[in-house]
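## Example record

The block below lists the input lines for one assembly entry, exactly as stored, with component labels intact.
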Amino acid sequence: MGDPAGIAPEVIARSLADPEIGRAGGILIVGSWALMRAAFERYAPGVGLLPLDSVADWDGLHPGILDVPVPDEAGIAPGKPSRASARVAGEAVRVAAGMAIDGAVDAVVTAPLTKWAFAEMGLPHHGHTEYFAWRSGSTRFAMMFVFGQQRVILATTHLPLAKVSESLSKRRIIDCVALLDETLGAHFGTARPRLGVAGLNPHAGEGGLLGVEEQEIVLPAVVECREAGIQVSGPHPADTLFWRMAAGEFDGVVALYHDQALIPVKLLGPEHAVNVTVGLPFVRTSASHGTAFDIAGRGIASEASMVEAIHLAGKMVIGSQTPQ
Amino acid sequence: MGDPAGIAPEVIARSLADPEIGRAGGILIVGSWALMRAAFERYAPGVGLLPLDSVADWDGLHPGILDVPVPDEAGIAPGKPSRASARVAGEAVRVAAGMAIDGAVDAVVTAPLTKWAFAEMGLPHHGHTEYFAWRSGSTRFAMMFVFGQQRVILATTHLPLAKVSESLSKRRIIDCVALLDETLGAHFGTARPRLGVAGLNPHAGEGGLLGVEEQEIVLPAVVECREAGIQVSGPHPADTLFWRMAAGEFDGVVALYHDQALIPVKLLGPEHAVNVTVGLPFVRTSASHGTAFDIAGRGIASEASMVEAIHLAGKMVIGSQTPQ
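Predicted structure tokens for the full assembly:
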């Protein structure tokens, strides 16, 4: 459900009203029945929803809502984030993660929340990615962005830029290449994908003149991955790599730091990029926007990114059931 | 002329054959008459060119070639960079810089060369930007990229990423904001442009959580520029700033490091971005591609970036003659 004081309820309701999403079926919203019902009445009045108290009661086909009520939820209003709204978001994530880990659902699609959702549970996580990894005991996981045929996996995420160099390791880059290779094979129907790894420095270090990380860390990782049979090349200059992927030369790219990935992702797919966590025992996608408390409840938020996130989760689940 | 072993001669010849460039007149090619004549015969046979031995003989209207012959130029061939081809490139730049500094021409448009052009002159410069700054005694200059209505100026350029943080200073950011403000006013007809400064860290540091450079360096520089009357804001998260400029919210942006600028520039304008040096006593633009020795002489190089560079130089000269 995400934080109900943000745009999450309205984008979820509108997404379910999308004809293709509606036909796909098999969607269970996890959150407050009372709050979601209000959002559906306003933003998707034609969509029928089955309220459920347990996932065991769900037929797995018709859209349903698994109710996870929290105290004070009646006082929650769009645009007014509160401890109660954070608690709804946290409870929804907690229950959804449990269902995914138990295999009751194939994928979790998340809506935006704040770190207060985790703080209300007494947890230190800043976002879904770290929380899901912790819940499922995954230590080898990464954030990936998908927009159309383009996929970018991140070797580092929320770090000061000055700390990126010292945080990179050959092991982490190998893990990211392998995660990308496995994910594109298992969930995107691309066996033996063509992968590229970005350099860290201008012109990918220009042979050591503009930095040594390419030679000391990135290249040895690429060599080891190639020896393991993965079709990967690099380090490539980052300023043309994303253009080359957009032109079809690569099926996926490893970016070394947050903005190296997010600048092209937001330029090429401002509304359509989907955030995917790879390395979990279940499929997890997310709308790429935030809670947007400032415009919540005004009916102007676009559901485009949420629709893409739901679509992609479905495609990734089907991909994982296709023989390689 | 650029390095005659690269694609420079063919893109220059084809640019002069462009009807609009041809009508503009007032273009003097500086380089080897023998080598340029061969390129014009092959790639732009209909274009008439006046060979000149001195800029004093030029009428300033008809396209001409100022011949700067070097020894061994007869042995130069496309795809085969040599000391002789580097010498042609270096001589052309040396003569063109002198003419611009003397006021004999209003602008210099450069074609690609390698650092060997400067090495052959016994100079340490790696590219045109540093060379022109040195020749004209400019200490406050910067590299800028222009693509359509979008302009990005770079606070740092060819540095290892790990050195960017320590290389930033409040002074340098103030200089870049002021150079961008002055240039857009004087050469682009945009008085009081709306400028944005990028943050260094993910989410522009997220209030200090992901880095302190925004609070310690960037924000104080922005505040000082605003107090001086410049319409500037920031630091803004870099991952949405270029998208916001593309959407029309900013007339120009200050980027803090090479790839922060070049990733969006190459994605949005792979063939049409023009490299501009600001802070020189004359207008200087450049095609944004390299020498491309690997495809030289095959007639497949696109002249699009050179045509844009010539057009932009002309517009910038006219802009500087418009009353503010």
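Residues 83-102 of chain A form the longest helix (20 residues). Chain A has a mean pLDDT of 93.
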